[in-house]
Structures are given as C-alpha cells and as structure tokens.
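Input/output pair, single chain:
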Amino acid sequence: MTTDTMLQATDLTKEYLSTDPPTQVINGVDLQVRTGEFLAVMGASGSGKSTLLYTISGMDRPTGGRVHLGGQDLTALGEADASRLRLTMMGFVFQQAYFLRNLSIRDNILLPALKATPGQKKQVLARVDALMERFGLARLAARAITEVSGGQLQRASICRALVCEPEIVFADEPTGSLNSQMTGEVMDALTEVHTDGRTLVMVTHDPACAARADRVVYLRDGQLVDSRELGTWTEADADRRTGELLDWLRPLGF
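Output:
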C-alpha cells in the first residue's frame, strides 16, 4: 500500500459453503480506495455489492484474498482486534438505522463512543452534541427513534458513524428506503462528511447518489468490470454528472 491508499483489497473472494453447490458471491476482486476518496459501488441486484462492502470492512471474513486498511492486514486480525478496529477507525451507515428502541436519539449516537473511550464521557458528550447541532438534530436529542422521520434517523446514523472520529465511513444503501427529499438531506450530509476529508465508500443503486462520488466502480456477478472517474461534485453539475453516469451505466447492463 502507498501512503495515499486507505484501503486495498487483493484477489478477494467470498463463497458461501452452506448452499449446494457453494455460491461464489465475490470472485477475485482487486480494489484500491484512495485516502480521502468518495467511492460509490454500483451493480444490479444480486451482484455482490453489500457483500463486498461487508468483506472489505471486516464485518464478514473473505474466503480468500487480503484486505489492508490503513496499513493493517484486516484479514489477519482476530475477531476481538477486528471489532476494536471497526469501532475506532470505521463508521457505518446502513439502509436501516439499527437503533435501540429504548434509547433516545442522543443516547443511541453516544453509545459506541462510550464503548470506545469509556473514560472520556465529558469529551464524548460534547462531540455528540456538536454533531447533532451540525446535522440539524439538536432539538430532537431526547426523542425516541419512532418520533422522527426516516431522513432524520439516517442523519442520526451519520452522527453515530462519526462520533468515534473514524478515518473511513462505509455506507450500505443509505437512501434505499427514503423519498427524494429525505434522500437529498442524507446525501448532503454524506457529501459534507467527504468534504471534511474522510474516506467514504458507499453502495447505492441510485445514479443521482452515485454521481456525488469522486469515482464509481461497477460490480457484475461478483467481479469489478469497470470504473469511472467523476472528479469533484458540485451542485451546479449534479444533473450533468447524473446524465453522464447513466450513459456509462446502460451498456454495463444497469
């Protein structure tokens, strides 16, 4: 890995042996993510997008190949060390928030940071409150998760992903269950995360969301078949970038 590489996957495979015959979901993927890059992963349903994200983040073990993250061989770590790395170096945003229903929005955001740094409660509380203020959630701090909109809940998920100050954020279909207005809110928040200089890897089926990325890779049947550099996103270029991305995606079978 070079100093400008945050993540590198080499000859990555993922096979599920519980099926007969075994199912090959990821097949020989080589992927490099640059430090500070916003990378979008696209592909048809069943192409292995989410499995790839879980595998490169250490949430799931690959069948073969290696993943290096920030200079560490993630695939060589034991479960306890891998879990600690995910907690302190990575942030996660999923299609569903997976918040605890008995905790307030603020306490759900707070929980992972208290686990990561139990002796720094005062600093962690200040960080949580600053994040909620930044993403327009301060007035909702005491609300239950059933008392906010889907877009607000996803912005809370972004706060939770950032609370441990990770170097890389993984997002799996973060707008998949949202309407267009809420999608815009969440993508504005994720774009801001990237603008801060954090590395961001996002799986999405939405070309308008993918058009915000610096680069898009396309997955088909567990293999990366193409990639496209998009450069820096600006709101003024949003429609043009989405149109050009769709022109690129159609011949790939999207």
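The helical segments are 49-56, 79-89, 105-116, 121-134, 150-162, 180-195, 207-210, 238-249. The chain is about 35% helix and 25% strand.
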